[in-house]
């Protein structure tokens, strides 16, 4: 379970990158899920499909932009 949006997106990124590495064109997606993804992450098939459809690169970039302080010399706690 992810406690922050950033941690959730990092998990999505890990799942998607592992899937891209292990994917083969002639093997169905469900077989890759059953043999590779599920033993590593223990997520359901529906969650796996949702992760693949998430644009994690864009969302991580937006989170990083929101985290930047306005004045680099002045940091805030919140």
General description of the model:
With 78 residues, the protein is mainly α. The protein has one domain (5-66). Helices cover 65% and strands 0% of the residues. The protein has helices at residues 5-22, 29-41, 45-52, 56-67. The model has no long low-confidence stretch (mean pLDDT 89).
Helix-strand blueprint:
Elements (H helix, E strand, L loop, with lengths): L4 H18 L6 H13 L3 H8 L3 H12 L11
Helix pairs in contact: 1-2, 1-4
Could you give a quick summary of the protein structure above?
This protein has 78 residues and is mostly helical. It is built from four helices and no strands.
Structural class call reads mainly alpha
End-to-end distance: 23 Å
The major β-sheet equals:
none
From the alpha carbons, calculate the radius of gyration and give it in angstroms.
16 Å
Low-confidence stretches: none
Number of helices: 4
What is the overall silhouette? elongated
Give the fraction of residues assigned to helices.
55-70%
Average residue pLDDT: 89
Number of strands: 0
Element order: H for helix, E for strand: HHHH
The tally of domains stands at 1
- Beta content: under 5%
Q: Which features would summarize this protein structure in a list?
A:
mainly alpha; elongated; 4 helices; 78 residues
């Amino acid at each position: 379970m992810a406690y922050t949006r950033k941690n959730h997106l990092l998990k999505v990124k890990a799942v998607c990158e592992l899937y891209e590495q292990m994917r083969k064109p002639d093997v169905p997606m469900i077989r890759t899920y059953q043999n590779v993804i599920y033993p590593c992450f223990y997520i359901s098939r529906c969650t796996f499909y949702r992760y693949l459809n998430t644009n994690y690169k864009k969302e991580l970039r937006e989170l990083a932009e929101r985290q930047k302080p306005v004045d680099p010399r002045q940091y805030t706690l919140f």
